[in-house]
Amino acid sequence: MKIKCKNEVKTLPSDGKQRIVSIESYEVCNKRFNIKFSRIKKWLCVLGLSFILFDFFKGEKTYTPKISINEEYEGRFRTYFAEYSLGKIYICKEEEFDKVQRFLGNNDILVIDKRLEDNPDMCVYNSFQIDSPQIIIEVLLALEAYEKENPTEWNRSFESMYNEWIVHNVFYSFHIRTDSTAHVDLDNEDEVIFNLPVFSKILKIKKN
């Protein structure tokens, strides 16, 4: 912490001596609160790595996802795209978000399709509520299937999406930037960050 102040020196006409007649208010500069988002991203990766290490040594990483694609899906907001082990997965455009949200079931998951933006993105709404690795895997498999059926410039690897989701959950649990960490944005720009070799070596998940 640095404290800055300025003393004003004047010559008083009464005795001709110089004295300090006023002191400007103190200006306190505390650099500890000047945190840039780049630093947050570094800690985000560190915490995410710690969480994945804990998750890796906690149990076996082989799952058999329970997911089925809805063959009658027509792209309309009332039609779910896939079913996973606990409910349905809806994928909609931003303009349809309010309509879809009204009729979601308790275990239904909503994904917002932003793949046509400058930075192609798939946003999992309220992703912080999903902390089961198996459910995360099922949702990500549904997103990969959705992209295959509706190809765009969106390009994310399975491993990087899983890593990013875990990291968002960790940060949300610590109440860090909850407005953004509550919903994981799987955009193209974050592929480089969350597809680091160290993540890929630690994360060993078999998609049967």
Short description:
By secondary structure, the protein is of the alpha+beta class. It is 36% helix and 20% strand.
Distance between the termini: 55 Å
Strand content: 15-25%
Biggest sheet, strands in spatial order? 6-7-8-9-10-11
Could you say which overall geometry the principal axes of the C-alpha atoms support?
globular
Helical content class: 25-40%
| Helix/strand order, N-terminal first | EEEEHEEEEHEEHHHEHHE
What structural class do you assign from the helix and strand content? alpha+beta
So how many helices? 7
Low-confidence runs: 1-12, 20-36
What is the β-strand count? 12
Task: Give me the Rg, rounded.
Answer: 26 Å
Oligomer: single chain
Average pLDDT figure: 77
Largest sheet: 6 strands, mixed
